[in-house]
Amino acid sequence: MTDAAPFTANGHALPGLAPGEEPVIALRNVAKWYGEVVAVSDVSFGIGPGVTGLLGPNGAGKSTILNLMAGLLAPSAGTVRILDRPVRGNPAIYREIGFASEHEQLYPSLRGREFVRLNAILQKVADPDAATERAIDLVDMQEAAGRALRGYSKGMRQRIKVAAALVHDPRVLLLDEPLNGTDPVQRASLTALMRRLGEAGKTVVVSSHVLSEVERFAHNILVIVNGKLAAAGDYRAIRERMDTRDHIVRIRCSDPRRLAAALVAEPVTTSVRMTGDGRMIVETPDARGFGLLLPEVARREGIRLYELQPVDESLASVFSYLVGK
Q1: What is the pTM of this model?
Q2: Does residue 322 carry a pLDDT above 80?
Q3: What is the mean pLDDT of residues 260-283?
Q4: Does a structural domain hold residue 179?
């Protein structure tokens, strides 16, 4: 396969793309290793315009993949292309990319406005002052833009990094865990901004380890587990695959043995076992149906429910299931 066909890998369409869609970002058979440590292993996918979630548990390789896309790392094997051109060592492509790293790389003595303007100057924006104000306005940081970065909260630092990544109006925006440390208002504002940018035709890639976050802003997702691509495509389709597995829930109630006896007779219950702390663990193939049934059974039996907690909803467990499938 040659570099003339960045939308294919091993003769097949890249995962993550709709039929006939050509990618803005294309990774083909990409690997990255450090000595004997493999961070990314033979990953191929394509990303088109809109918002794509790069989803996976911490340590899965998401940040490494974003750094490869940004040209900050060279792949140990394979190719990374943006806009049908190689990324690494290509300043012309860097002008098309905005990148907000998960790691703090801020100058504490600079004011927020100065930091964003510095990035505008480095990107050789024609009118850095106007671009700076526009980017600050996009992330709702007007009131704090005159303050030194050393006094910013985590959520404020996240937003000013996004402003700096947007200041040169890039076609591709790479955001590494941008919602970490944000409060609910900040999170809602950033989520709405990401959706608007995607609707405007930008290609936005956002990493996260939280399923519910990604559902709010991305229709397409790439699932990364242990440095490998576990699933790719429409969020709803992948969610349906997740929901076909058995779910495990922990229940605490006033009479666990009586509730266990009642639940065993229900078709939505696969198994029930007691724990040493007075709780019970229930396995069910239908989490939604079980959630509706449980209060009815408890009311019928005169049992008080104190806690209903999923115990298998971590990304590691959900995505390990996907890999196994």
Answers
A1: 0.75
A2: no
A3: 91
A4: yes
